[in-house]
Amino acid sequence: xxxxxxxxxxxxxxxxxxxxxxxxxAALLEAVQDTLIAEGxxxxxxxxxxxxxxxxxRKGRNPRTGETISIEACKVVKFRPGKxxxxxx
Length: 89
Fold this sequence. Notes:
Layout: H1 3-14, H2 18-39, E1 41-44, E2 48-55, E3 58-61, E4 68-71, E5 74-81, H3 83-88
Antiparallel strand pairs: 1-2, 2-5, 3-4
Helix pairs in contact: 1-2
């Protein structure tokens, strides 16, 4: 699903215009991003939880050359689906 398709689906389910739905989606995504940066976790009851986790530095392999490379530590966002979402799918 693309962003445009998601905006169209939000508009049809809420009777908002596509422009209003796009603003809503942008605000929601910005709020989730800001909260993950500040607090490291966003929980949506019944849907799931987004968390920020630290990935340790590790050794990897360049698939083209087979050469060993070092991959730096970084932060990643993980998603764990909630019970309602798991049961629905």
